[in-house]
Amino acid sequence: MLAFGISGLPPDGVDDEVFLDSVAEAGHRAYELAFVHGFPWKEDRCERFGALAEARNIRLSIHAPYFAILTSDDPEKAVHTRSALEHTMKLGKAMGARVVVAHTGYTRGRTAEELHALAVANLEVIEPKVRHLGVALGLETTGTERAFGTLGDIALIASEFGFVRPVVDWAYVHAMSGNGLTTVEAFESVIAFLRSEFPGWAVDPLHCQFTDNLFGPKGEIRHVPYGEGTLRVGPLVEAAVRTGLQMTLISEAHDDASHQRIHAEVEAALAGARPDPPREGTRPLASGVITFPAGVRLAPDGDGWAPVGAVHPLRITNPDKVFFPADGYTKGDLLQYYASIAPLLLPHLEGRAIVMSRYPDGADGDSFYEKQAPSHRPDWLPVAPLWSEHRGEPIEFVTAPDVDSLLWIVNLGAIEIHPWLTKAADPGRPTQAIFDLDPAEGADWEQVVTVAGLVRLVLQRLGLEGHPKTSGATGIHVYVPLDPIHDYARVRAFVEAVGRMIVAAAPDVATMEWDIGSRTGRVFIDHNQNVGGKTIASVYSVRPRPGAPVSTPLVWGELDEILPDHLTLATIWDRVARFGDLFSPLLEGTQRLEAAEEALGID
């Protein structure tokens, strides 16, 4: 639950293996490399150090150089600071670090709005270079009035960049609150704020730093040996245990005696602290087989249950019903998954009609697709009326603008979420083109990866960017974000032209044959998913298969290394914490097909 460690660098002349042995022998489970003055190590040493630390179950992080800030308004300095952050994150990837810690910068007479805009502008430049690394950028809370970066500031930045996390320096918070962290309840209030402003997977476990300090009216003055100030670690640990918060706690003290005293108090507090008892009469939504971030509790509601804290009157039924018999996962586990993943999923559903793929008796039971919103839907759940040529009238599709709406849909047994490729406000113009790569009988994952690589190559030659995700079954979906200016016919023709080019180049591995028997041993490129009214399992959708696999965004470079059935509602959380939303570019569009159509000879 709590991994304690210290910050520093191995002493000169001490072998890394010997040093890490001493870290482990001291009972430390974390270590933060203080690259605060520059880059003393190259990538090869980071790789070796990371492997040695992993073998000893030691979590690693890196503190970026102090000059690597986000709020420089000097163009030349901004290039330098962005480069330093990018380089630190690449070293973090080599090392297997979960997070790179950085300061946001100083105010220098600028407003919070101006500083936020600078930070966002700099992050927009580095995001395409680092979001695929699987290393979070942890922005450290400020300790003086001269610096930018309150938890509120960081929350606003993190809401725009999925790879950004808060790093709480408790000494800084203590200083800025004017001796405010002296009780368990004070720490609990900060934890409650974190949970209200950040997704559960972004703050649990929470990366944080601790030391004692002296402070004045304008914030921290300096660090001091532990015990000389007023900040104590025991109340923090008790608050974390009581609230169920996992932490990586890094001592930033400047002397070994303080490290030892802080560690001893951590261990003593852990031995004596107890979790808060659950609210009387409530129960967890999930079964307990899986550990989910941001767990939901249920209160009795007639013959059903109501999620505690729900905004709308939402009723959950049969949470203990087994939905994935091979694994023992329940309907409550499915609902909790969607509640926990909602901060990533909901932006991809915003404004879109949803087709429900319902499995009332679980993944092994009968299923059906439902387009028309049920007549018993609550008044608070918005619908999207879209014209149906077949019916000669609109169909009212459900939508999911918030967590309550999403859970209402899933409570109907909707294991899968199928959004339209268009926004309901403009139902004829897709915001993405989809290459659905489906292995036929006799084809394997390696062939799917090969065809996906060919799709990427062609897209690159056409000046377009594609983003892969597992289908959640045996295939890969490659999404191409588009400005909503093309109709379905244009998008379908584009995908078909690219597909036929790939089939011509690699007929042994790719096919577009409609006769199923003629596809054997090859990967079918299905361009007909790009048709009005057709839907495909959304990113982050669970699929009704053993293990409860999730349709998960991938990094192009990892396709050869990953197996799709390893990405499930139980295992996805570490990945989400590392990457955030790899599909965030799909939310922006910003690509057009005119140049590609001309290159492909499409009229």
The count of helical stretches stands at 16
Largest sheet descriptor:
8 strands, parallel, barrel
Q: Summarize model confidence as the mean pLDDT.
A: 95
Distance between the termini: 60 Å
CATH architecture title of the largest domain: Alpha-Beta Barrel
Which regions contain 5 or more consecutive residues with pLDDT less than 50? none
Helix content: 25-40%
Q: Could you tell me the CATH topology label of the largest domain.
A: TIM Barrel
Number of domains: 3
Strand arrangement within the widest β-sheet reads 1-2-3-4-5-6-7-10
Strand content: 15-25%
CATH class of the largest domain, named Alpha Beta
Q: What is the number of E strands?
A: 25
Taken from the alpha-carbon principal axes, the silhouette is: globular
Radius of gyration over alpha carbons?
26 Å
Q: Write out the CATH superfamily name of the largest domain.
A: Divalent-metal-dependent TIM barrel enzymes
Structure description:
This protein has 603 residues and is α/β, with parallel strands linked by helices. The protein has three domains: 271 residues, TIM Barrel, CATH 3.20.20.150; 137 residues, Alpha-Beta Complex (DNA primase, PRIM domain), CATH 3.90.920; 169 residues, Alpha-Beta Plaits, CATH 3.30.70. Helix content is 33%, strand content 20%. It is built from 16 helices and 25 strands. The strands form seven sheets. It has an eight-stranded parallel beta barrel, surrounded by seven helices. It has a five-stranded mixed β-sheet with strand order 22-23-21-25-24, covered by helices on one side. The longest helix is centred in the first third of the chain and has 21 residues.
